[in-house]
Write a structure and sequence with these properties.
The complex is a heterodimer of chains A (about 110) and B (about 120).
Chain A: E1 4-5, E2 10-14, E3 19-21, E4 24-25, E5 31-38, E6 44-50, E7 56-58, E8 64-68, E9 73-78, E10 87-95, E11 102-103, E12 107-112
Parallel strand pairs in A: 2-12
Antiparallel strand pairs in A: 1-4, 3-9, 5-6, 5-10, 7-8, 8-9, 10-11, 10-12
Chain B: E1 5-7, E2 10-13, E3 19-24, E4 31-37, E5 44-50, E6 53-56, E7 65-68, E8 75-79, E9 88-95, E10 105-106, E11 110-114
Parallel strand pairs in B: 2-11
Antiparallel strand pairs in B: 1-3, 3-8, 4-5, 4-9, 5-6, 7-8, 9-10, 9-11
Chain lengths: ~110, ~120
Amino acid sequence: AQSVTQLDSQVPVFEEAPVELRCNYSSSVSVYLFWYVQYPNQGLQLLLKYLSGSTLVESINGFEAEFNKSQTSFHLRKPSVHISDTAEYFCAVIQGGSEKLVFGKGTKLTVNP
Amino acid sequence: GAGVSQTPSNKVTEKGKYVELRCDPISGHTALYWYRQSLGQGPEFLIYFQGTGAADDSGLPNDRFFAVRPEGSVSTLKIQRTERGDSAVYLCASSLFGTTADTQYFGPGTRLTVL
């Protein structure tokens, strides 16, 4: 069965610092990869997704993630974070032919002033 | 437009009772999903509807859990003989066509507490 590992449960950083949230998935022939974000007291929102094509995908608020098939990773990065990026971030995968998202346990990003 | 809505937002019940959780998907979305998120965990898939039919119910933990979507819109998740281990946030999501590439839009969830 497909699984997703988020190696860090909590990541504290200072404002304007770079951040990387790590995500690895179990190998599969074809997968589609997602990052969802949950801001305090809000529901899950899609941040970005990889379906095919360019392995680097970007969000509208400056996050990017790179699909690395050989390392089965989909790490999320941002070169300079803001306090408003404080949230919990979930990596998820859908195996080709399926419609169900398989989530990691989440990483709580806290951006301090 | 309106997003996915779920009612109630909070539900407290006693062990052994029956509960119903409701999900209103985004208008026009054909696919509807239920997930369960326990404390400290990511959401876990329960069931997926395409229209009125359950296309995949492989995530339902046991026969105490049942879900319906009789008219292809609103869905109800039903839990019989609740147990303390059922305490979690129950999330509903919908997508336009239900294909793999479709974005799933999530509701705010129903927090179920079984005493």
